[in-house]
Give the backbone structure.
Amino acid sequence: MKPAPFEYVRPGSVAEACALLASDEDARLISGGQTLIPMLAMRLARPTRLVDIYRLPELNGIRVEGDVLAIGATTRQVQVERSALARQSLPLLAKALPWVGHPPTRNRGTVGGSVAHADPSAEIPLVAVTLGADIEITNPEGVTALAADDFFIGPMVTSVMPGDCVTAVRFPIWSHARIGTGFHEVSARKSDFAFVAAAAQVALDESGSCIDAALGIGGVGDRPVRLDVSSLIGTGLDKQSITESVRQAAEVLEPASDLHASAAYRLRVAVALGTRALEDAINDARAGDGQTAKRGA
Ligand SMILES: Cc1cc2nc3c(=O)[nH]c(=O)nc-3n(C[C@@H](O)[C@H](O)[C@H](O)COP(=O)(O)OP(=O)(O)OC[C@H]3O[C@@H](n4cnc5c(N)ncnc54)[C@H](O)[C@@H]3O)c2cc1C
């Protein structure tokens, strides 16, 4: 099948892109095209006009801004994967990225495109929710930011309105001296979308006691969810406390059944992978071979 006819425009700035979007409700942004091009080819999307932002230099780049790592929307996933700065300040994203599709899709797929597409199983949105990232949105009225938790609404549904362009994602950098990360997912084949994914980051003090813990689960409900494992803070992180904390936190999950997996399977795997991701993060922090998050590196 071939795409339905569309007009193709390559604006020279974000402002021009937003104006083009606002002037035509059937216009659609295209970035890396890894999701949109197949949708066009299958006629699941039939925009009248494609507004191509992929080469806008103002949207590409990885930089430290105080205590956050700002990643421009059209920064390709492979750029982040290869960035020493991203690996050092955002080790959880670095650990998740190899699970995002295949090397060829990461060569063109962008961070902003993945966030805007909002697949409930996608790894970058999961890390954004787990760490409490902010999503920057630009439209003809100006620039705003939304917490990732408020940005993702449902499967492929976000707070992006007609005329909006996601322009950056800002991930908090943990400043603790000892942090560790863990990431696990189950899928039919490596590089397929996850049935269930779990992302965890912990910080330990010098005595090995937990001072911060974040755990997110993807693929189980209609969007990625951060689980409350704050009961682990101040503890020595023994196995029983971890298992119990994840089991209790997972009660908020609302798993759905589909062709790939039943709701009961998804819930069971979410608890198992969440526990495993946390244990890996703790071992990583204890061993000191997890990247130590640093600002301004
Ligand atoms: C074979 C294959 C396997 C894949 N496996 C995975 C996987 O395991 N995990 C995973 O997470 N992804 C996976 N993907 C999708 C991933 O590769 C895409 O990169 C990602 O979903 C979209 O990024 P993109 O830049 O290509 O966006 P595009 O395809 O260009 O756009 C996707 C959607 O987002 C909108 N959009 C794009 N940029 C913006 C913006 N800045 N602001 C507002 N809206 C915007 C577009 O209008 C469109 O609706 C896979 C893709 C393929 C082809």
About this structure: The pocket of flavin-adenine dinucleotide is lined by residues 28-36, 73, 100-101, 105, 109-110, 112-114, 116-117, 119, 122-123, 160, 165-166, 191, 193 (CB under 6 Å). Residues 290-297 have pLDDT under 50 and may be disordered.
